[in-house]
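Fold this sequence, please.
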Amino acid sequence: MAKILAVDDEAKIRTIIKEYAEFEGYEVAEAADGMEAVEMVKNDDFDIIIMDIMMPRLDGYSACKEIQKIKKIPVIMLSARGEEYDKLFGFEIGIDDYMVKPFSPKELMARVRAVLNRAKASHTTEDIIKYQGLEINFTAREVKIDGEKVSMTPKEYDLLFYLVRNMNIALSREKLLEEVWGFDFYGDDRTIDTHIKMLRNSLGPYRNLIVTLRGMGYKFEKIQ
């Protein structure tokens, strides 16, 4: 049974999340603000976190950054603000999905399933791919360049692993949004392009392995 941490300063929101999640068979713990969420993560294990952004004491973005220092846990962010900047900022700091309030509880549960399935899939692949000084370890969810571990956001890992698993296959931006971001993500081409730019910067000397297909999308060139 997957365990969810619902973090929101509104008790009504936490109650709705808990009711629907428990109906789906999940175990749910609650936190009323980011500070409480960080402390709970230190003392317990969670499979996924549903986190509001605007909260007292410690906002969702800051809490997410602190949690990442402790454990790698998928995060779905909730916000009353739906501007693209807010979404992209969230993805840049490592969240897995973003929903705008008011939201459909059923859609939220669908997104929870999608994120958990991706997280599970990332831990069942046993391949290690090496190319010169680049090493991609799917099992450990690690990327190394010349023996040094590369620090990436969770979404960069997801995007790279999907590109590599579909090596030498042309992938449209729409396909990448569907497969990497999951259920009914409300984004556009700039979301993909922003993350590709971040990923290339992380890969440094191997950035050219990700090839731009003008007017279409991207592909990861086959490693010989």
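The CA atoms of residues 112 and 189 lie 23 Å apart. The mean pLDDT is 88.
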